[in-house]
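Student: Please help interpret what follows.
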Amino acid sequence: MTNKISALIGGSVGNGGLNKRNDVRAVQTLLNLPINMSLSGLKAPLKTDGELGKGTQDAIDLYQEKVMKPRKGQADGRVDRGGVDDLQTRAGVASAAGLSVLGTQVATDRQR
């Protein structure tokens, strides 16, 4: 089964990204998944307002630093459409388990 979570965003979110409101909101929702908060060390859920503010950018940076563990200087502070980073995998796992993400069901192939 292939997840189509990357369809959640139409463009990149974060440093140098398109940062469209719906895309930012989708990334905020994914960052708020309990598993992503736990792995990244994010202390409080992000406000899912679709605005790329300091809190959201810091959360993207923190997630990349703590979870993705890129080589020094390789984290770009951006979530790109083609690979919504590791966030899509975790969202797919949550969705496949029938969990909702802050009241929003994350769709997978099985649910479409």
